[in-house]
Write a structure and sequence with these properties.
The protein has 195 residues and is an alpha+beta fold. The chain contains three helices and ten strands; from the N terminus they run αββαβββββαβββ.
């Protein structure tokens, strides 16, 4: 004769499992987003990184930070009303050697809005290495699906946008065959990941 199991005996283990699952989800959701402080010759600004949008891109950026790659690089391309670009050249405009490119993680939902930071690349969508740009305005045409693969947004300036605007106001010209180069170098002194 089989022993009858009371339905109530299932309720406690199921309720316990649901509670544990919700607790784990809540912990992940409450984990703060990483932030980086960018010190430049014109002042500092803070970037909040978004590994939830572009995990490989954020990991790539963090590895360059760990290697102290960006210290002494410049914002080499500045176009008012569009964007400022840096992270690849030293103050003499020599390009620094980089690691292998990362896959393009651009998504239609991650928009190139004013203040967002995104990866610079060539015509090849999966060619981004160390260079990044900060949007000075909403640049919808850079979004995935608008005119191709798009440019991967991986964070946003959350403090110090005035520094970005000051960089954008620097007079520019041609140097070493490159256009839109600031006449006076805008140096990235250091980028540090906040603890």
């Amino acid at each position: 004769m089989r022993k009858k199991v009371k339905p109530f005996s299932y309720v406690i283990p199921v309720a316990l499992c649901v509670t544990m699952l919700l607790s784990a989800v809540k912990t992940v959701a409450e984990e703060p987003l990483p932030k980086a402080t960018v010190e430049t010759s014109l002042g500092s600004f803070e970037v909040t990184l978004r590994p939830d949008l572009a995990p490989e891109t954020v990991n790539n950026f963090k590895q360059y930070l760990a290697d102290d790659f960006y210290s002494g690089t410049v914002f080499h391309r500045v176009i008012p009303g569009f964007m400022i670009q840096g992270g690849g050249f030293d103050r003499e405009l020599n390009q620094k050697p980089t690691r292998s490119p990362v896959v393009n993680e651009a998504k239609p939902t991650a928009k190139n809005l004013r203040g967002t930071i995104a990866m610079a690349r060539t015509q090849n969508p999966d060619s981004a290495t160390s260079q990044f740009f900060i949007n000075l305005t909403d640049n919808e045409f850079l979004d995935a699906g608008v005119r191709g693969a798009g440019y991967a947004v991986f964070g946003k300036v959350t403090d110090g946008m005035g520094v970005i605007d000051a960089i954008a106001a620097i007079p520019t010209g041609r140097q070493r065959g490159m256009a839109d180069v600031p006449d006076e170098p805008v140096i990235i002194k250091k980028i540090t990941l906040q603890p």
